[in-house]
Amino acid sequence: MTPTLLLLAALAGEPPPLADAPVPAGALQGPSSARLAAPVTVRFVDGFPDEPTPMMPQGGARARGSSPAPAEGLRTFTLDVARRHFEEAKWGKAAGKGRELVIRSVALTVSQGPVYNATVVVDRVQDGRRLGQATGQGTSWVDRSNQHLAAAFAGPFAGLAAHDASSPKARQDATAIRLATLRALDSALYQLAAYWSGEQLADEYRRQAQEGQNKGKK
Predict the structure, then answer these.
(1) Taking Cα atoms as reference points, which of 96, 118, 106, 107 lies closest to residue 42?
(2) Residue 13 gets which letter from DSSP?
(3) H/E element holding 130?
(4) pLDDT 10s per residue in the chain (218 long)?
(5) DSSP reduced 3-state for 59
(6) Which residues contact 142 (CB under 8 A, 6 or more apart)?
(7) For the purposes of burial, counting CB atoms within 10 Å of the CB of 56, is it exposed (0-12), middle (13-18) or buried (19 or more)?
(8) Interatomic CA distance for residues 93 and 138, integer angstroms
(9) What is the DSSP string of 60-116?
């Protein structure tokens, strides 16, 4: 998803386009599923906000700005993340039959460092029936050691410079914010895939047992 496409969508009053881009190598820290679940479609819950996500400090004080990176990251990389846990994933724009992953929300908390913590909530839906929900958590941080070193030589402004070096910055830290979001999504999908693949395995065992019984009756 390029900035040009995002801008055109915004000017047209439409949501940003959905993409299928590969996640950068080494970005995800959690394990992929050992046994892939069956194919799914992925969509956002109706009314999912495309506006920037508030950056809430831990403790519930006033938001320290907002960032478009969480929604952009989900629209760009979700399918690649999903394929770590499901055989195949594709976008679905409306509720339908079959297996669905429905992204309900994304939230972002920040702390000095800066450290970014994302929370992504995803529903598991089959044939229009909600079967469960998973909440994933993801964290990333920004190394500003060079700025901290420079702050040490800022004389009477050293304290302010050090505080600024540790402060969250939406635009400058967009990559880290996006990374935390994708790690949170990965965590949620790992949980949902475990439930679904377990159910699929149980169904397969029942099918094999039934076939064995049928053969025994012949």
Answers:
(1) 96
(2) T
(3) strand 129-141
(4) 454 555 445 444 566 789 999 999 889 989 999 889 999 999 999 988 888 999 999 876 788 789 999 999 999 999 999 999 999 999 998 888 899 999 999 999 998 878 999 999 999 999 999 999 999 999 998 876 655 454 445 555 455 545 565 677 889 899 999 999 999 999 999 999 998 886 766 556 556 555 555 566 66
(5) coil
(6) 113, 114, 116, 172, 173, 176
(7) middle
(8) 26
(9) S-----EESHHHHHHHHHHHHHHTTTBS-EEE-SS--SSEEEEEEEEEEEEETTTEE
152-161 b/e (C-beta count within 10 Å ≥ 16 → b):
eeeeeeeeeb
Joined tokens for residue 54: 């508030």
138 forms beta bridges with 118
The CA dihedral of 34, 37, 40, 45, to the nearest 10 degrees, is: -70
Say whether 3 sits in a helix, a strand or coil.
helix
Tokens 């508030």 identify what position?
54
Give the three-state DSSP class for 162: helix
Residue positions counted in the chain: 218
